[in-house]
Amino acid sequence: MNIEELAHSAEEVAPRLLGAVLTHEAPEGTVSVIITETEAYSGSADPASHAYRGRTARNGVMFGPAGHLYVYRSHGLHWCANIVTGTDGIASAVLIRAGRVVEGEDLARERRGSKVETARLARGPGNLCQALGITAEHDGADLLAGTAVVLSRGEPVPTELVRVGPRVGVSKAHDWQHRFYVAGDPTVSAYRLSPRAKPPAGT
C-alpha cells in the first residue's frame, strides 16, 4: 500500500484495510496475516480514542504521519497494533482486530500455543500481535518503508462481504458503527459489549 491510500480518515481507511497483508520479518522467522477485522478511532472527536484528550507520550505516534504503527499495551496484558491514518498532526488510527495467518503458521502457533485452533491464531488484537511477534519495540515503525513490519496490498474484499458494526469492548461511544469485518470469516472476533458501557442519554 502507499501513503495516499492511508492519508484519509480512520473511518474511510478501516474497511479498505480488509484483505491487506501485515507481515513481520523477525530473526526467528516471518509471519504474515491477511487482515479480516478492523476498528476506526479518531482523535479529539472520538471519546473511545486514546487521543481524545490530546497528545501524550503514549499516543504520540497517532499524531504522526500515516503508515506508521501505533502499538500499545491493553489492560497491562496484551499488545495491540494500530495503523496510523489521515494527516500528520491530527490523530487517527485503525486498530487491527483480527487476521488469517497465511505465512509462518508454525511460528505463529509456537508463539500462541500448540493447541490453539488455526482460525484463532490471530483472532483478537492481542492474539494477532502475539502471533506476529509485535511488541512495544515496533511502536512507530514505518509500515511502508520495507522494514521489519510491512503493510502490503492483498486481494480486495468484495463489498458485499464487508460488514459494519459497533466497536468491541469499549465503554465510550460503544454504539458507533466503526468496526469492519469480513462476513463469515472464522478468524473474526466475537462481538462483546463492555460491561462499563452506558446507554445513550435519554434512553
TrEMBL record:
Entry-linked CDD domains: AAG
Protein name: Putative 3-methyladenine DNA glycosylase
InterPro entries found in the cross-reference section: Formyl_transferase-like_C_sf (IPR011034), MPG (IPR003180), MPG_sf (IPR036995)
Pfam families, sorted: Pur_DNA_glyco
E.C. no: 3.2.2.-
Keywords per UniProt: DNA damage, DNA repair, Glycosidase, Hydrolase
NCBIfam families (UniProt xref): 3mg, PRK00802.1-3
Domain of life, source organism: Bacteria
Organism: Streptomyces fragilis
Family of the protein in this entry: Belongs to the DNA glycosylase MPG family.
GO MF term (any one): hydrolase activity, acting on glycosyl bonds
Gene3D superfamilies assigned to the protein according to its UniProt record, in alphabetical order: Methylpurine-DNA glycosylase (MPG)
